[in-house]
Amino acid sequence: MDAEGAVPVGSVPTWHAVLAAVLVTLGSSLPVYVLGALSVEIDRSLSFGASALGIAAGGYYFGAAVSSIPLSRLTERVGGGRVMRVASAAEGVLLVLIATVARSWSVLAVLLCLTGIASGAIMPATYLFLARRVPASSQGRAFGINQAAVPLAPLLGGLAVPFVALTIGWRWAFVMAGVLALVASVVVPASLSTIAERRQARRERRVEPVRVAPLMALAVGMALGMFAVSGFVAFLAIGAVHDGFSRAGAGYLVAAVGAVAVVTRIAMGVHADRRDEGHFPVVAAMLTAGGIGYLLVAVASAGHVRWLFAAAAIAAAGAGWGWNARFNLAVVRAHLHAPAKATGFTDVGGRLGGVLGPVVVGQVLDHASYDVAWLVMTAAAFGAAGAVLVGRHQLARGLPAGPG
Q1: How many domains is the chain partitioned into structurally?
Q2: What would the pLDDT profile of 267-313 be if each residue is shown by its tens digit?
Q3: Is residue 50 part of a domain?
Q4: Rounded CA gap, 234 and 125, in Å?
Q5: Is the pTM of this model over 0.90?
Q6: Cβ atoms 135, 14 nearer than 8 A
Q7: What CA–CA distance (Å, rounded) separates 341 from 329?
């Protein structure tokens, strides 16, 4: 055991650690993305409009935002694996409850908020878990594969439209998601250090504070980037139907968007292992390219050009949603003494962006058009790129650590 109470690298096979992180991350991501992919069917069942859908999806991100920092501090104390097991089990139970007791919009919204709280614990826990269990030379790949689980969620949600929602009903999709989260909880390897041993190790070492100023700028960048992509994914299916796609076709488009983001995140992780620095400029470039993709979606929506809509949506997802693993790896590398705490801080930005994205886009759709909504996402993506570069500049200047 090292000075931080971490499990020595190699104590469990790397593939086991990565598999556990992927399954737990996937389970924590499914609630909101299954909601987005099945939005047409759920709306037909529970009868609520675009703004209500946005608020329900935003509730998931709100729950994650308020829990991220306090639960990341808890994670540093008790260990990533323990938090992953408990939170994933809670996520599974909540997903099954959505399937069985959500008979109104209000119940659905409350349960989604609770799944968000569990997700707020899971994400920093997986970053700490991978940082301690995977050798540094393979962490780019590990982070890429792990973060690929997030867009894998809408891919599965998209496929659930023709194969589950339109055959046996949307509720069964949430049952299946809940079972997956429960299985993920079991797959997480046992912790090899006790909580008492971790506490003793923390007392014996100097706990360095995280650097708040750069993290604030990076959190703003993540907030704007996630604002764009959460609004995009939440309303892509229903927006595609509005522009002339069939319901099954819209589901396949959501699945394609998820598949491209999965491949991009893994590729970016592999690329990250080949270089020691320069990750944040790559993230900024990807956000900029994503903004261009959203812009082309707006053009296609205004002209009702379905082939351009599909191509631009897929391109926007590849660039505008493929940067997260690279971003989180860069934050961890800059804060190796407290990876959960640092990513918990930036994750608040991502979660708040996730709250505002669906809510704001839902309001825009209630008062304007889909092409205007896509333009709002364009502006957010460009702003995110600028904020990431500001945070990177502050880190490069070696600003003094903050009190956190």
Answers
A1: 1
A2: 988 888 877 677 899 999 999 999 999 999 999 988 888 899 999 99
A3: yes
A4: 25
A5: no
A6: yes
A7: 14
